[in-house]
Amino acid sequence: MEDHRRVWLRHWHSIIDAEIGEDSSFDFEAAYDDPYDDFRMHFLTWDLSDDALHRCFEVLPFGQQMAYRAIEMRSLRRVNAFTLSERAAVDLFQTGLDAYSQFSNDSELKKPIRVKRISADNLNSATANADRVAVLLEVVDWQIASENGQAASFLRETLYRLAHSYDVVDHIKWPLIPNSQSVEPYRAFATLALTGTYFPLLDEEGPVLFVTTDKTG
Description:
- Helix content is about 50%, strand content about 10%.
- The chain is of the alpha+beta class.
- The relative contact order is 0.17.
């Protein structure tokens, strides 16, 4: 019997074939052996229609819930005028920190948010010693079912290509995590990531919102 990932991968690529066209150079076995190198899935997925995306996700556990989130994130990503004021971004950051505090008692979440304004060119160097806030949830034992964990791994790189943000990945994959609470810890951070302007991180002093000043306005 074929493993889940092989079945999922065949299903996904069959939809890409039908919607976009077959590629004679595509090597399914190579893509299966090295999922990080399956650029066809990573990139062409986001050229599919909403209906096709639903069909891609439908074979996965909680697929429809994830499909709706992926389509919403893609829609926001495509809206060039999607912007937030700095005040709204800080408030959204605080909303995310408050949601994270439902799952972690880490003292970092209690520290006030600082704002650092930088140019886009200096972003990488400025954030080099900072972490995503999600690092605080790495110690949480989510008790994820085996198939759900496989689905999360299967989707990870493709979801990252949607907005080049693991905060967006975490938000889309949230339905895979059994959660007895109504709080969604990742949505605020995913929304900030889609702006391409605001970057909520943790540095040695606590929460810091990096603002790329040449992208605001």
